[in-house]
Amino acid sequence: MSALPALSRTLPVCSSPLRKCSLLALTLGLQTGWAVHERNGEIKLGVNAFRTNPYEGEGMKFLRFRYWLDDMSKKFGGFDAVIYADVQIHANTQSAVVYGGFLGLLSASCDWRQIPYIGASMSDVRKHVIGSDLTDQQSLIDAIRRKGFIAASKETVSALAMLDWALHYKAEDNA
Asked: Do the domain assignments include residue 1?
């Protein structure tokens, strides 16, 4: 396997052993996929939508995301680290605005709680999970299924792939 860029090596290491860490992996967007590695080793996943209706202001999606992050932290007893998909190119301006707003809220929330966070290059994640970064979404879905996971959406597949990447490189750093 090829060496990872230096940024990918800075994944935060929690103070407890690998399997006792609580990690949150996110794909930021109006449809946010998430995967959580709980301290007991269980993995939970899902998708949350932050769309607004015609009678709401555009800021409501950001408020919903902020409160959702708080609820997730309470539900899972806090997180030792957060991993998010580091997206550099967006399909349109609205996607870029939503991503940037959610990333701002995520980083502020993590900084407030003193939780380390890192953006995972999806290229690095695909290289880890599939063996190549030049693959389609179906290849990622198939690879995640071969690892024993069942994910219902492309968002949860990406979140699971990031979680797998993070746990692999945490284990390597802890070795």
From this structure: no
Query: How many structural domains is the chain composed of?
Result: 1
At CB < 8 A and 24+ separation, what contacts does 93-98 make?
95/29, 98/28, 98/29, 98/30, 98/50, 98/61
- From residue 147, give the alpha-carbon distance in Å to each of 1, 88, 98, 143, 161: 18, 28, 31, 7, 10
> Domain containing 53: what range?
16-174
What CATH number does residue 70 fall under? 3.30.420.10
The answer to whether position 32 is within a domain reads yes
Answer yes or no: is 94 within a domain. yes
Cα–Cα distance measured from residue 156 to residue 168, given in angstroms and rounded to the nearest whole number = 18
Q: Could you read off the pLDDT of 86-130 as tens digits, one per residue?
A: 988 877 888 889 999 999 999 999 999 999 999 988 888 888 888
| Residue at 8 is within a domain | no
* CA angle centred on 146, ends 141 and 152, rounded to 5°: 40
Q: With contact defined as beta carbons under 8 Å apart, do 35 and 155 qualify?
A: no
- Within 8 A by CB and 6+ apart from 36, the residues are 22, 23, 24, 25, 43, 44, 45, 72, 76, 79, 163
Tell whether pTM > 0.70: yes
